[in-house]
## 1
Amino acid sequence: MLEDIDPKLIRYVINKYIPFHRLAKIAGLYLPNTERSCFCIFHDNTETPAAKLFRDAEGDRLWCFAENRMYFPYDIFRLKMIQHNPETVFKKIWVQLPESKKELVLQESSATVSFLPSNWEEIKKRIEPYKRGEMTLDEVLTELLKLERKPVV
Ligand SMILES: [Zn+2]
């Protein structure tokens, strides 16, 4: 059995296996269950959606354009937005994983994994003009939505 659980493993497993919208719901907040723009739940965002949800094999991430930063499902625990103990939640997920999967996850969590979306380079290019103040938030979000409609290769 796992004695001292590596916090990095707890974080990795929670980020990979728990969809953002489920933790947000526990916190009484809303996040979409698909990749799209939305209100950021980490700052006072009620007028224009300032964030975008990304999802791939590594789990969910939320990029906030207003704060210029990436959030992960684990941040909901870290910022104490819910009372649940991340270690308990981790254990619940861990017991359900087949042994072969556990080994893989252990390797992945200890490796230097990029937590960025797989098409991050392309996204970054589109965000740059917004950062320089050459585009409005609406314009950059429209650009990013175009990016999504491209067929996945
Ligand atoms: Zn934000």
## 2
Amino acid sequence: MIATSPDTTETAIIVGVITPDTSRWAVRDNLNELEQLARTAGAHVVERVTQSRTRIDPATFIGSGKVKEVKRLVKQHNADLVIFDDDLAPVQVRNIERKMDAKLLDRSGLILDIFAGRAQTAAAKTQVELAQLQYLRTRLTRRWTHLSRQKGGIGTKGPGETQIETDRRLIDKRIATLREKLEKIDQQRTTQRKARHGYTQVSLVGYTNAGKSTLMNAMADESVLAEDQLFATLDATTRNITLGGTEEVLLSDTVGFIRKLPHRLIESFKSTLDEVRTSDLLLHVIDVTHPRFEDHMRVVDETLDELDAQDIPRLLVFNKVDALDDTHLLRALRRDYPDAEFVSALRGIGVESLKEELLARIRADYVERTAVLPVTEPALIAQIHRDADVLTEEYTYTDEEDGAAPQAIARIQYRSSEKYDQRLTERIEALDFGHTERDESNAEPAVARADASAA
Ligand SMILES: Nc1nc2c(ncn2[C@@H]2O[C@H](COP(=O)(O)OP(=O)(O)OP(=O)(O)O)[C@@H](O)[C@H]2O)c(=O)[nH]1
Ligand SMILES: [Mg+2]
């Protein structure tokens, strides 16, 4: 965040285009969102400009007459910034900038700026800088890149002036360094994540400002930053919560999604979003009070696709029901989404029922199996205890000629998802131990399915 005191707040004019496939209403809502983004970045929007066009002008995006109008408004308001709701091609940036005396930003540039101001950890900073450099690389000719870097302000945060003012080669070198740094961070993350194996992982996902962090606080009785601001959360935060007194769950709060999230940003945030990808279940939080919440749901679905997380089971959580006056909508939603939960994260309404549903979903995933384990393999037994709930354990002695081999017959209960099956199997195989009962027909090494009805 920058420039929030009145004397340093930058003034901005925002520009949107109404095309045959975007309605006037949609553009109005999109500009509302852009204004909120601008505010988050520290700018004050003084004017909105829209234009209906059947096709985009390849040279200046909006028509040349409209460019003149914007130019006049910049003068009139002494505006610092002109922000387009759509992404501009580098040539359009050049052409428009030549015509007016203000910094020009497009949606991606603005979002990247917010991310740069928000990034706290080494990982987030590296990811954002990488995305920014890739974005700026194609826009090196920007007039203001040279002029107003010294001045600072929106759109100039992040990589310092030396990197921007130098040529592409330097940027490429920096990009390579950042990539290496990210790779190292990734390795650390992978190690941390491995340490969490055996836990049920649940992630809160959703459009920005939907109330994910607030819900996290309500569920975990612990504080994370929740603000009426876009992208309050940039790094995934994880809390340990206990459901039903026994079930330990790792709950992660993640970065919010937004329409037209710059692709590069998703790319570089992929590792942060690994929390999402390795989750057992996703809680998709939706702000029901937002007029375009259905569009938001679609954006979240699309972003999850892009992250390869489309197959992870999801529980829809309609949030902010306390602020919803429209009882018709609530009734319609309950009818259309019978499996969804309705909560107010802020007031704590429905949170217990959400927890119960979460627990039920997790429990439904469990299967019971019988495992026959040799007592001579304490490491294996310890791991089984870590990964599964051991319901009963009996020790038997078999009368084999090569001596009595004590065995433990354990009745175990654990998650049946592919991820867990694989995990347990890998662990057992890693011990290089071949004596456990094998049910070849089921292709389940080491652990034999004993009670299919429990599945
Ligand atoms: N009325 C009402 N407001 C809520 C509720 N839950 C969250 N809010 C408000 O919505 C705003 C956004 O909440 P956050 O929890 O920061 O949202 P988020 O999804 O984490 O947002 P990002 O991290 O920016 O993606 C805050 O002002 C919250 O107080 C709710 O149940 N009811
Ligand atoms: Mg948040």
